[in-house]
Amino acid sequence: MEQMGLGFGPAPGGEMHRLFFALWPHDELRARIDETAAALEREHAPGGRRLKPDRYHVTLQFLGDFRPLPGRLVEDAVAAAATVQAPAFGLPLDCVGSFRGSNVWWLGHGDTPDGLRTLWDNLGRALALRRVPIKASGSFVPHLTIQRDVRRQIPSTPIAPLPWRVREFVLVDSRPGRPYDILGRWLLV
Question: For the chain, which ranges sit under pLDDT 70?
Fold first, then answer.
């Protein structure tokens, strides 16, 4: 696994940081996701708010919320990610849905591709070896959130597939009111 640009430094003391590994769509796919989200919004009027395209991602491993961001944790997470070996894979986004009791709509794929499962497993093991704690939700349900604060659920519904060849994963630092910071980027082989 090749690591691409890495840039992090000391974090401001009082600022909240949400740290997670994610799949990061390329710009053309982001535009197509946004078009699909807009069409779904027009057709189904869910209420709430549509996410901006620069927020689109599929979370792989959630590390938690921190104030301040612990530099050692970031270093260990980066070191763990650098050891991950996994192949590139296809992840067509071919359905829209919402989780029972949630207020979000998402795009996803009917079945988790083997390559995605391999990446998730390998990254989880690498983080455990480096003693980087993760906040597990019990099961891995890959999804890309497109709408928040919706007033109604939508059952899992097929959509015209949006092909996605996943070739990398990233480490993201999310801070309230700011663009996401990519702290590291690793290519899949």
Answer: 1-13, 137-138
Q: How many CB atoms lie within 10 A of CB 13?
A: 8
**Cβ contacts of residue 182 below 8 Å, gap of 6+?**
5, 24, 170, 171, 172
Separation of alpha carbons 2 and 12, rounded Å = 29
> How far is Cα 102 from Cα 189, in angstroms, rounded to an integer?
35
Take residue 98 and report the two structure tokens written for it. Answer: 């919402």
Q: Would the pTM count as exceeding 0.70?
A: yes
Task: Map tokens 């009082």 to a residue.
Answer: 14
* Predicted pLDDT of residue 138: 67
Token couple for 49 = 């708010």
Stretch (H or E) spanning 19? strand 17-23
